[in-house]
Amino acid sequence: MEQSVEDKLILAKLQDKIKYCKSRNKIVNTEFLNLHQKNIIQSKLNELKIKNYIFHGGFDEAESKLLILYPDKLNEEIVLKSINEIINAIKITLPNELIGKYEHRDYLSSIMRLGLERQRIGDIIVYKDEAYIIVLKENAEYIKNSLQELTRFKKSKIEIIDINEIKSKTPELIPMEIHVSSNRLDSIVSEIARTSRNKADELIQNEKVQINCQIEYKSSKQVNIGDIIIVRGSGKYILDDIKENPKTKRLIITLKKYV
């Protein structure tokens, strides 16, 4: 498959970081990566037989992770002990009158107003009374001070904390089954969005469907177990299982929807 311009740029930056790590004998890291970016970097690292690296997003279940490369003189344990020199968390504690009022999109939209690129921010963990925003250490102070200036958070307590102080959260997933003629993307989107195949194709062509964090334009794209599908307006799903109904020969696909 031909690589996109964005993918080529990511791999070029990776090569630069590998060279810097080796020549300077220092730890280097990328910005936060989505699943698609992580996958293409992982493939390149395997191809180059690079061993000294970890992907880290602040906690085990993190979706956005950065790549950390380290020299031969170090090991993974040493790198993890110094993780707070690379990643911090910003904790926002809401006043009583705002408890339960803010969702993930409220926090994300506030951060995007600060003029930072999305890849400077990792996962956002939201509870009714507080939220944790994973950020690069170099941006932490700016984000904290800027958020405190927003009217939305004027009465909130905002602090920078070590990454091991966050209260992590396992995503809540609801299982569901769909019956389709094939594992083509348009068939699956049609069931997810509860619409016709033609309307599903329109959603795909209008850049409203992603597979593994990458916009997909091919309605005929085969979706496989483990793929994450996002349909704008209909949610985010992971394909968990595919079976064939022996009587109808149609596929029974198990999805898990992120809540």
Structure description:
With 259 residues, this protein is of the alpha+beta class. It has three domains: 77 residues, Ribosomal Protein S8, Chain: A, domain 1, CATH 3.30.1370; 79 residues, RRM (RNA recognition motif) domain (Alpha-Beta Plaits), CATH 3.30.70; 86 residues, RNA-binding S4 domain (Structural Genomics Hypothetical 15.5 Kd Protein In mrcA-pckA Intergenic Region, Chain A, Roll). Helices cover 31% and strands 27% of the residues. It is built from seven helices and 13 strands. The strands form three sheets. It has a six-stranded antiparallel sheet. Strands 5-6-4-7 form a four-stranded antiparallel sheet, with helices on one face. Strands 1-3-2 form a three-stranded antiparallel sheet, covered by helices on one side. Strand 9 and strand 10 form a beta hairpin. It is globular and about 60 Å long. The model has no long low-confidence stretch (mean pLDDT 94).
